[in-house]
Design a protein that fits this description.
Blueprint (H helix, E strand, L loop, with lengths): L20 E6 L11 E4 L15 E8 L2 E2 L1 H6 L4 E13 L3 E11 L8 E5 L7 E2 L6 E6 L1 E3 L2 E3 L6 E12 L2 E4 L3 E9 L1
Parallel strand pairs: 3-14
Antiparallel strand pairs: 1-5, 2-5, 3-4, 5-8, 5-9, 6-12, 7-9, 10-11, 12-13, 12-14
Length: 186
């Protein structure tokens, strides 16, 4: 007796298209530090607010052994201090990019009448590692007659950077990066 045969086809399912992958905020396109960013002093010759992105916590040195530290030397007689935020949005399969910086939180109103603001809107390119980056933060010093007052040891602020990458299949958000800057006397 003949046996009935089953003839069929097994369809292979393909994965649904997806948004960009491997999306992260970094200090450069490759190498260096992933999930990080750098800050660069705007004032010529100043380095007190310049960071490499190697840590999520940065000490801004006011004094060293009772002597003026980098921040006091760079900005002690200035009305303000400004630094640009530089970063790179790493992503695989993306066709458009967006990054945004902000002041996440702070112990401001700083003692001594100091304050902080963020300047910059959405940055819509992948590479913000040069020039003015994605924006800047400015610390405005308090005023006491003919001189300025800078932050006290223990004052702090946090800069937050968010980013997303998009293609025709969707948008993928990077993990937000927050770096804390703490004013310190050593």
């Amino acid at each position: 007796m003949p046996m009935p045969a089953v003839i069929g086809c097994i369809a292979q399912q393909s994965a649904a298209p997806s948004g960009p992958t491997n999306v992260s905020i970094a200090t450069s396109s490759t190498g260096n530090y992933d999930d990080s960013f750098t800050s660069v002093d705007v004032a010529a010759g100043a380095t007190a607010l310049t960071t490499t992105g190697s840590s999520a916590s940065v000490d801004v040195i006011l004094t060293v052994m009772l002597n003026p530290g980098p921040y006091t030397i760079n900005y002690g007689s200035a009305g303000m201090a400004t630094a640009n935020i530089h970063c790179y949005l790493r992503a695989t399969g993306a066709t458009s990019y967006s990054m945004q910086g902000s002041i996440d939180s702070s112990s401001f109103t700083f003692s001594n009448g100091c304050s902080i603001v963020w300047t910059g809107g959405a940055f819509t390119a992948q590479d913000a590692t040069g020039g003015s980056g994605i924006g800047s933060f400015t610390i405005t010093h308090g005023s006491s007659g003919r001189s300025y007052t800078i932050p006290d040891a223990g004052d702090w602020f946090k800069i937050k950077v968010t980013g997303s990458a998009t293609n025709s299949n969707g948008t993928t958000n990077a993990t937000s990066v927050v770096i804390t800057y703490t004013f310190a006397a050593l």
